[in-house]
Write a structure and sequence with these properties.
The complex is a heterodimer of chains A (about 110) and B (about 500). Chain A is mainly alpha-helical and about 110 residues long. Chain A has five helices and two strands; from the N terminus they run ββααααα. The chains are: A mainly alpha (about 110), B mainly alpha (about 500).
């Protein structure tokens, strides 16, 4: 499977996650988000950028509490919870936000 | 892609055996594992040349290796007692999801190659060659069995149909037809130590965050120790407990229990997973290798007890198989159960008055309890008959004032699977998972309507993730599901040392 972004063909897995993390750009994120019916706002980018930074350091997306804590610090305590994240990414913050951020899908009993 | 467009079946006031819909779920097919995922765990990467002969030989090998499998293949008289006991049949109406019919997909091949009548008069006895279309049926329909073993409870011969599912999966793995979700996860455990692929530094960072959060909430220095030698207790728990909600609330609950009881405990980055997907694919060697990490961690850290967190099939593997799989555990303290379930630990502490729960703190909740298949039908607790039903409920009742069980034919050993067990908890199977949850959702709706239940406690990470996903399809709030130790964590009194 693949997606087209700016005339380039990028390989994805069966579920639309990027195969090569290095392929990711903001344009790619917008294309994936569109397919997910997510309209990227500044708040979405805040989450996506945090996921990418965390992944670069730890080779895994952050746990939900790590994410909500970081978002709460940045955007205010009323946003530091998973309810807010589900508003941004209705199909689950971990999976949908990871996909848009170009990160692998979290696996396991999640 | 977004949320898949799946229509949940309507909830009925009482269970009705569905009208048959042939091939209703013939399109349900999980992703086949990519070559490198299969090869990473020692399986052939893709469908091998001469797969038919190799598959038949593998089935023969399993039949000779496991006497149980041979009995289960031979003993079925097709009486049909199991037909309407399967949540996937009840939810989909696909006749191949009647347990007897699903198992027949293997039995007809078994008869063809391993019985006199099947070898010589296949048509007379309904024996069939293992053709490509039969293999395709295997792949689709054995990935529509969650190995929950509810049908086995009603089988007059006691046939463990899950063993046949597991055998089919093992045969398919041996010829390169592995399933992506399970095999990718098994690879991550071998390489990183847990199903998520959460490396040690990320785990440490996560646990430190939890310490800070609990300190902010409670003012107490509740610890989440990692790799601390000399601790009394090693806790192995599903890695979802570190990562996801509602799972993490139970992890916080365990930590508070240890804190309040003054027991020194630790998690391990080497054995940072209780789950063992080797069981789901019926593979002894994978199951053993995954479990061995727990033994290695226990020895290295020098602990006296191993406690298993809220994970259904992990408890089955620990309770029923660890002793022969990775034992003996003669280095652990025999005064405690070996291994010990976190519910056994907490129940014992409550009974002895070593921890105090204030039930009123959970007064906003009206609670029911969902028995997880592997705990209910494949394990015990507390060293007493039916302890696996009694202990978790006793803890819930100690943590809440209002508790109501669901209908008796849907709890205890009759419990209905959440619809996501056995290696099916993957997004491409959402339609199956939604439909398979139907019987549990019907039982839940009855106590919601009658008693105002707003919280379903459970002790399995798969159940939690599955219900969080499918509850909204049935117009329930996803936050209705949570762990037993989530309730404990909210009710426990901290900061008292008397």
């Amino acid at each position: 499977m693949s997606i087209e972004v700016g005339g380039k063909t990028l390989e994805t897995d069966e579920e639309g996650y990027l195969v090569n993390l290095a392929d990711w750009t903001e344009d790619v994120a917008n294309v994936i988000a569109q397919a997910e019916n997510v309209e990227m706002s500044e708040n979405h980018w805040e989450v996506v950028n945090f996921l990418r930074d965390y992944y670069n350091e730890y080779q895994i997306a952050p746990a939900v509490r790590v994410l909500t804590k970081a978002i709460g610090k940045k955007l205010g305590p009323d946003k530091g919870n998973s309810k807010y994240l589900y508003e941004l990414f209705p199909y689950g913050p971990a999976k949908q936000a990871c996909k848009i951020a170009g990160l692998p899908k979290p696996t396991g009993c999640v | 892609m977004g949320a898949p467009d799946v229509q949940a079946p309507p909830l009925k006031a009482y269970p009705v055996i569905p009208i048959l819909q042939a091939d209703a779920m013939a399109g349900s097919r999980p992703y086949v594992a990519a070559e490198k995922l299969n090869e990473a765990i020692g399986f052939p990467g893709k469908l091998v040349d001469g797969w038919q002969a190799k598959a038949v030989a593998k089935l023969g090998e399993l039949r000779d290796r496991y006497r149980s499998l041979r009995v289960f293949l031979d003993a079925c008289v097709h009486c049909g007692a199991c037909t309407d006991k399967c949540h996937f049949f009840l939810g989909t109406g696909d006749p191949k999801n009647m347990p007897v019919a699903r198992q027949e997909l293997v039995r007809k091949v078994y008869r063809r190659y391993f019985t006199f009548a099947g070898k010589h008069f296949p048509k007379l006895v309904g024996a069939e060659d293992l053709t490509e279309s039969v293999l395709e049926d295997w792949y689709r329909y054995f990935n529509q069995c969650s190995e929950c073993r509810r049908c086995s409870v009603y089988c007059p011969y006691g046939i463990d149909t899950a063993e046949i599912t597991m055998a089919a999966k093992e045969v398919m793995d041996s010829i390169g037809m592995g399933q992506k979700y399970t095999n990718e996860i098994i690879g991550k455990v071998h390489k990183i130590g847990n199903n998520l692929g959460l490396p040690g530094p990320a785990l440490l960072d996560t646990l430190q965050t939890l310490e800070e959060e609990v300190k902010e909430e409670t003012g107490q220095d509740v610890r989440f120790p990692l790799d601390e030698p000399g601790a009394e207790v090693l806790v192995v728990t599903p890695s979802a407990d570190f990562f996801a909600e509602p799972h993490v609330f139970s992890l916080i609950g365990y930590a508070k229990v240890f804190h309040a009881a003054g027991i020194r405990w630790t998690l391990s980055s080497h054995a940072s997973e209780a789950g063992n997907f080797g069981l789901f694919i019926g593979n002894y060697d994978q199951t053993r290798r995954i479990a061995m990490r727990v033994r290695e961690a226990a020895l290295e850290l020098g602990v006296k007890r191993v406690v298993v967190g809220e994970c259904g099939h992990a408890w089955r593997v620990a309770y029923s198989f660890w002793n022969t799989l990775i034992g003996p555990f003669d280095f652990l303290d025999a005064r405690h159960p070996v291994p010990q379930h976190v519910c056994e630990l907490t129940y014992d502490l409550i009974r002895r008055g070593a921890i105090t729960l204030e039930r009123e703190r959970n007064d906003r909740r009206v609670v029911t309890f969902h028995d997880s298949c592997n705990v209910a039908r494949a394990s015990g607790m507390g060293g007493i008959p039916r302890g696996q039903f009694i202990l978790p409920r006793a803890i819930v009742r100690a943590a809440c004032t209002r508790f109501h069980d669901m209908a008796p034919e849907t709890i205890h050993e009759n419990t209905f699977c959440c619809g996501g067990g056995g290696g099916l908890l993957t997004d491409e199977l959402v339609e199956l998972r939604v439909k398979g949850a139907l019987p549990r959702m019907e039982a839940l709706k009855a106590v919601v309507d009658e008693h105002g239940v707003n919280f379903m406690a459970t002790i399995c990470a798969i159940c939690k993730a599955q219900f969080a996903k499918v509850l909204p399809y049935y117009k329930f709030d996803m936050g209705m599901v949570g762990g037993v130790h989530q309730l404990v964590g909210d009710a426990i009194v901290l900061g008292r040392n008397d």
